[in-house]
């Protein structure tokens, strides 16, 4: 049996931009991507703590160290700059792998920078 489990989470990042006139996706600071073990083009779920919206998109790399969290395309309609979001990726694993799996969890500061 295969089950889908949380692979990675960036918890309570602040939206820095919303660009409606873009093809689509979420742009994430590459430092946050690395820390969360998320790669370019990976599908993620976005949960908006401010309005309750939940939606899926894919990731593109943002400038390293920039703190960028930018929702692009139609997803830009589901956020406002300053909203707090949770970014979650999932992976399929067999039951035994899933029981041993430790997700990558990232808790950025108020400027979307890694806390050391």
Automatic annotation (TrEMBL):
Named from the GO MF annotations, one term is: aspartate 1-decarboxylase activity
Cellular compartment(s): Cytoplasm
Q: Which cofactor does it need?
A: pyruvate
User: What chemistry does it catalyse, as a reaction equation?
Assistant: L-aspartate + H(+) = beta-alanine + CO2
Question: Record's CDD domains?
Answer: Asp_decarbox
The entry's active site is 25, 58
The pathway this protein participates in, as annotated, is: Cofactor biosynthesis; (R)-pantothenate biosynthesis; beta-alanine from L-aspartate: step 1/1
Binding of substrate, residues: 57, 73-75
Q: What Pfam families is this protein classified in?
A: Asp_decarbox
- Quaternary form? Heterooctamer of four alpha and four beta subunits.
Function per UniProt: Catalyzes the pyruvoyl-dependent decarboxylation of aspartate to produce beta-alanine.
Family to which this protein belongs: Belongs to the PanD family.
Name-wise, this protein is Aspartate 1-decarboxylase
Provide the organism lineage as a comma list: Bacteria, Pseudomonadati, Bacteroidota, Sphingobacteriia, Sphingobacteriales
